[in-house]
# Entry
Amino acid sequence: MEIRIFENKEALSRAAAQYFIEVINKNHKPVLGLATGSTPLGMYEKLIEAYNDGEVNFKNVKTYNLDEYCGIDSNHEQSYRTFMNTNFFNHINIDLINTNIPNASGDLDAACELYNSQLNENEIDIQVLGIGTNGHIAFNEPGTPFGSKTHCIELDQKTREDNARFFNSIDEVPTHAITMGLANIMKAKKIILIAIGAQKAEALRKMILGDVTEEMPASILQFHPDVVILTDREAVKTLIK
Ligand code: PGA
# Structure
């Protein structure tokens, strides 16, 4: 794992975007693995800026998102489809048909099966990840098997508490989600994981220095050959003195 520590979010976001720009510019049909949450927002802003400056073209780009809440419509303001359209897709020249997010509003088993077969046919060139305070990546909560593929999962109480800030109350936070599995994520050719702020310090420390265990899902990344961690001083304060 390579670890890059940034002095501010602006520089970190620019560097994160640069990894994606390089992959898009060197592939005819790039396949991107995307994430939601607060973590990648700055990177999406920088990618939109790069698109507006003519540095990158999304015409031939295909995307796969990590996860989607079950039980809310894709038009709901907190669905991950809405998040992606609002924060990224609507501002670039991507064809929405090439943007994939698990369909968590119908037959869930069929949606998982379809997503897995799509991921088998489309190797992800670069995947961006955040990390949950409980060590989850995507919505693979502690205890998820390392061999898992796209599946439906019950969200941890901690995850629902962390995400309640986006809803009117915790009662509105969905209880389940469809998520890419850890085996799907590990197949990505390159992974960048962004961790910002003191609240991520403990999870980051365990991910990098702790045992590789299903109780700390992100620890599986120790086995991936090409992971870059983009982080800040707050998040690594328990790693370096
Ligand atoms: P956040 O979530 O980006 O909103 O902090 C990250 C995650 O839960 O993976």
